[in-house]
Design brief:
alpha+beta, GIY-YIG endonuclease, Nucleotidyltransferase, domain 5, 4 domains, seven-stranded mixed beta sheet, four-stranded antiparallel beta sheet
């Protein structure tokens, strides 16, 4: 049965009546005060009140959301664009269960080039920040990042250590002997040449390999002309290594625009977005991303939500984003992307020519195949979890499988800073949203695991 405005508690009716006709964001909360949905609106009053019309609750997911709303709050902003940005920040902070969002609590890994340092290092991070560094990614796995770095380091032997580089060290580390570090620490390469090498590495990650090769060929000829044959040979090897990698990259577009090609695959409540990264007409990489809470949400809304979450943390923006169909928020998202790109032109387009349509179709095929493989993996994992729970039921002589398992532990630092922790498994799967930590208050000055555990379990029972 639909939950209409007239059936709401008095305090909710008062809140609905107080809503302003201004742009902003709204937060729905359940009885525990947890934020369960975040949305934005050009007109907060009209948008929020629309949830409590019977016609808006046709889909079971929306009906379940409305049934759980016990409180709401809103934040007024100055424009629709400000509402979009605030909405993304609130979703990232609260991770509401009814919002479409990227699966996994973790952030995706990036390659970080510490460009602000005199001798830039290259590392892996999950937290891009505005510190003068350059970031490339995201990647869906750390393994993929390190596989990329293994190739890069053989071509561009960059620093990884924390030495203060003076060029006066007596000897270099083992990586120099292995050809995996240029060794500026012993003066084997000047600061200017080292930074130029890292610039080449960045261009390589951006897919701009031809300018790198041309410059290296010029440097190789100049080195040979002044009898610097050792440097010329090193540059020759770099050129060969780059060409070997480039030969494996597929040319997919005669246009030289940098593009991201997106496609969506859905099946039985699951959704996967495939992204092709095309730089300089070449397919330099692709990644897939799983979305959750997509049940009953139209494809265009799923894609719009993905665009906002993906590019909110995406370090390098393409010139164009190709989509399989229109999204309602395309104009607003484009405006936001251009703001993020400091005014650089970014377009969201649905392809019209055959070449771009073929790219989107190829991405869609990959998305569908990826979803098929993931579903098979999820089913296999679910089967293993069911078997494990059945084995526990038999071993512990339980009436039914233990669908919720809680584990507790106590730790301390030489009798101080005593902390208890709780982990939760549901249906054999960790539910990290329910993990808890307890700062122990009743035990002071000496470790007492039994007394600490008693406090943890007592406080847990009161939750």
């Amino acid at each position: 049965m639909a939950r209409t405005k007239d059936s709401l508690p008095t305090h909710l009716q008062q809140l609905l009546n107080a809503l302003p006709e201004r742009p902003g964001c709204y937060l729905f909360k359940d009885e525990q005060g947890e934020v369960i949905y975040v949305g934005k609106a050009v007109n907060l009053r009209n948008r929020v009140r629309s949830y409590f019309h019977a016609s808006a609750q046709q889909h079971p997911k929306t009906r379940r959301l409305v049934q759980r709303i016990a409180d709401l709050e809103w934040i007024v902003v100055g424009s629709e664009l400000e509402a979009l940005i605030l909405e993304m920040q609130l979703i990232k902070r609260h991770r509401p269960r009814y919002n479409v969002r990227l699966k996994d609590d973790k952030r995706y890994p990036y390659i970080k080039v510490h460009w602000a340092d005199p001798f830039p290092k290259v590392s892996v991070t999950r937290q891009p920040v505005k510190d003068g560094s350059r970031y490339y990614g995201p990647y869906t796995s750390v393994w993929a990042v390190h596989q990329t770095l293994d190739v890069l380091r053989r071509i561009f032997p960059y620093l990884t250590c924390n030495r203060t580089i003076t060029g006066q060290d007596e000897r270099a580390c083992l990586y120099y002997d292995l050809g995996l570090c240029a060794a500026p620490c012993i003066g084997a390469i000047s600061q200017e040449d080292y930074r130029q090498m890292i610039e080449h590495l960045c261009q390589f990650l951006e897919g701009r390999t031809e300018p790198v090769i041309r410059r290296l060929e010029t440097e190789m000829r100049e080195a040979a002309a002044v009898l610097g044959f050792e440097r010329a040979a090193r540059l020759r090897d770099q050129i060969r290594a780059i060409r070997e990698v480039v030969q494996k990259q597929r040319v997919v577009s005669q246009k030289m625009l940098d593009s991201d090609v997106l496609a969506l695959a859905r099946d039985d409540g699951e959704a996967v977005v495939q992204v092709f990264f095309i730089r300089g007409g070449k397919l330099i990489g692709h990644e897939h991303f799983v979305l959750e809470n997509t049940e009953g949400v139209p494809d265009e809304e799923v894609l719009a939500d993905f665009l906002k979450q993906f590019y909110e943390s995406h370090a390098a923006l393409p010139r164009q984003v190709l989509l399989p169909h229109e999204v309602e928020e395309a104009r607003l998202i484009t405006q936001w992307l251009r703001q993020r790109g400091r005014g650089e032109r970014v377009e969201i387009v649905v392809p019209q020519d055959e070449e771009q349509q073929a790219l989107v179709a190829l991405a869609a095929q990959n998305a569908a195949e990826t979803l098929r493989v993931l579903r098979a993996r999820w089913e296999a994992e679910k089967h293993r979890q069911t078997e494990a729970l059945a084995a526990l039921q038999e071993a512990l002589d339980l009436e039914r499988p233990p669908n919720r398992i809680e584990g507790y532990d106590i730790s301390n630092l030489q009798g101080t800073a005593i902390v208890g922790s709780m982990v939760v498994f549901e249906q054999g799967v960790p539910n990290k949203r329910l993990y808890r930590r307890f700062n122990i208050r009743s035990v002071v000055g000496h470790p007492d695991d039994f007394a600490s555990m008693e406090e943890v379990l007592t406080r847990r029972a009161l939750v």
